[in-house]
Each structure stands twice: as C-alpha cells, then as structure tokens.
C-alpha cells in the first residue's frame, strides 16, 4: 500500500467511516448470500445518493458479465443487465482502475455509448473488484438526475469498499476450497479410499479400505486374518505406507516351516560366538526395522518358546540378541498375519493367550476372492497388463468363467491362471478355452460357507447340462422348484 493511499484513508470523513464500518460488519460473515450482497449494495446507493447500483462478475475467457446483484433506489432488484452500460463496464476492465464520469452526457470517452444515451445517464462511478491481482468483477453506481455526490471523495469511498469486497472474496474462496476438499475427502472415504497396491471396488474392499486407513494412523498392533492368497502382505505394506512411519523401514518375515533357532536368530540377531558359525555380531530384523513396521507372516506357526520372546517385544519394546545379555530397545510397529484359527490354537494351548490379545488389538479380515467377484475383471486386467506388453483383453465368456469359479487359492491362483492364459493366447483376446482352472470337487478343499458350495455346485451342473434345469435337478436329487428358488436367491432367472 503506497503513501498516497494511506494519506487518503486518513482523510476519510466520519460519515464515510460510519458507513464503511457498518458494511464491514455485514461482510464479515462466512459467506456472501444474495440477500447480504443486496443489503450492502442498498447502503452504497443510499450513501452516494445514486439511483442504481450493480455488482457483476467478469468472465475474462468469455468477455462477459454476470449479475451478482443489481438494485435501484427503491431497493428493488433489477433483473436485466442490458439496462446498464456494458461499455462503461468494459472501460473499467480496460483501464483496470476506478473510474468517475461526473458528466457522462458530455464526456467524450463514454457519451457515444448507446446505453448512456438511451438511459440518459448523467453520472457514473465504476470500480474493479480484484481477487489475487486479477479482476474478479465490477461495482458500478449511476444516476440520471442527482450528480452532487459523484465526487473524487466518493470515488475513493467506493474504491475502498471494493477493496473490502476483495478481502472478503479471498476469505470465501479459501473457505470454499477447504469445504470442497473436505467434501472430496469425506466422499472418498465413504466410497472406500484406495489402498496402495491393492485393487478392488467391491463392497468388501471398500470396507477393508476404511479399516486400513483408520488403523494406519495409529500405532496399534494389527492382526491380519484371511485365507492364503488374499493379499495379507499387501495389506501390511499399505498400513505402513499410510502411517506416520512411512519412509521408515518396512520388513517382512515368513514364520511358517522355519526351524526355531534359525527364525529366532533372524528376528533377534546374535552375538559373536553365540553358536557355531556366528563369526560376527549380527543385528536382528527387529533392530533393522527400528522406527518402522515389521510384518510377521503366518504367526500361528511359531513355537511357544519364541512366542514368549515376541511377547516381550510387544509389551516392553525390548530385545536380547542370541548369546547376549544386553537389552536393546526397539521402536517397531508389529503387523502379524495368519490363515489359522488362533482362538482355537489358544484353547489347545498351542498359542499363548496373552500374545494373542497383544497381537489382536485391531483385527482385520481380508475377504476371499469368492466374496468380491465383482473385482475379478479389474484384477484380471491388472495382471494381464503386468505380465505382457501387448494389449490383451478378456472376452465376456472368459470373464463369466472366471467369475463362476470359487477360487480356493484366491488372488494368487487367479494370477497363475491368467499367466497360463497369456501363454496359450495367440490373439489380442483371451477366450474361455484359454482359461484353464484346476477343477477340484473335493469338498474338504472348499473354504466357503455351505450356501456358497450349493451355488457353486448348482452352477457347475447347469453348465454340464447346458442350462437344462430339469436334468440339473435330477442329477442333484432335488426338485426343479428348488433349482428355481436357488437361482432366484443368486439373482438369476
């Protein structure tokens, strides 16, 4: 703000200050409603003894004006922008400054404007409204009779008022941006925020995403449960990447089918001479993962002795290397996973109850693929793109074949099936004949519910009998009515 402008502010008479104070109080709200803008414009018209007032927004790209508010001295709204001089509005935009035309009929710059002549406008004041150094709009007041108050002093008054509006616009713009961002984030959360490296838009995946985003912001221990191949390590990595520990180490250790002493030395490290072959000191994975996250896969397979040592890490954040007596403190977030029934193992005294509760602070169940079949096309296209540079797609019949299978091996099995299909495919489209799935009718291998198995078996028999419901019912030892009811439950006719 320059010195000239400051000196002008000091010379503002009390009458103007009183009006500006009242207007600033009106403008100091969270939003500018139409009613509020009209009320402010009415006060400006009254103070300047003008006949009309106009507040327009300027669209630079289209070079046009849109009415925000237009009022007359009787405090009635003016709906038609054409009754004002567009030439004067454009002159304010062109000059980029406040303009006073005390005698519009005689002023050579504007007297030729058709609207000035038709409306018999005698005096006009127009001032630009800026937002972030760019003209946002124009405030204009005019009169066809009284020109007494159209002075340089009141030109400055209206210019000062326009600056106040500019400040309010900046505040509102920032607030609207925050509100829009808040709505976007809330909407994203309601839809199910994306999980890093995990694909799916099904209801089950949206629910999983919400849980992962929520727990990621805490430091709680997480127990991931689900069948083999459901993506437990991907979920663990997502929790780490979405957490404040992002950027710190993420380590993973598979605990199944590993000798106890080997697993213990990997987890806790060892001191030189602790055992034959320990020629130097070695840090364990807990130490390496300090300040980060550590994923223990198949936690249900570790021995009771190792469980006791793991409990110490969870309770005290302390470790002792093999062959050492020195206690080391570690800051590690534990994420464990299993496809086994830990409560059942606790009952059989094969898993420590206290460790189970320490791990199970926040349980997360990963859905099997058969419960999120709507994600199969997305997953399939992702795996196809990952495994070939060619543009290959699945035919509708191939997709239906994939969706009709129960996937005991889950996503891992789907990936293998698609890799085989790519090898067999000689064109840009994979058909059902390239989808080779290991059929297994052994019910002991099926991990789903009874109703899932019924639906699976019914679909398979219908395929065998080419959709003939009578032959299907006969082969299953049920009535045709039963088949029809089951198909209705499945949403098929």
How would you summarize what this structure contains?
With 493 residues, this protein is of the alpha/beta class. It has helices at 3-10, 14-27, 34-48, 86-95, 114-118, 152-191, 203-216, 232-241, 260-268, 285-288, 304-316, 342-347, 353-359, 376-387, 396-404, 410-424, 450-464, 469-476, 480-489; strands at 52-59, 64-72, 99-101, 123-131, 134-143, 222-225, 250-254, 269-270, 282-283, 293-297, 318-320, 327-329, 333-338, 362-365, 393-394, 429-430.
Describe this structure in words.
This protein has 493 residues and is an alpha/beta fold. The chain has 19 helices and 16 strands. The strands form 5 sheets. It has a 5-stranded antiparallel sheet, sandwiched between helices. A 5-stranded parallel sheet has the order 7-10-13-6-14. It has a two-stranded antiparallel ribbon with strand order 8-9. Strand 4 (123-131) and strand 5 (134-143) form a beta hairpin. Helix 11 (304-316) packs across helix 13. It is elongated, with a radius of gyration of 37 Å.
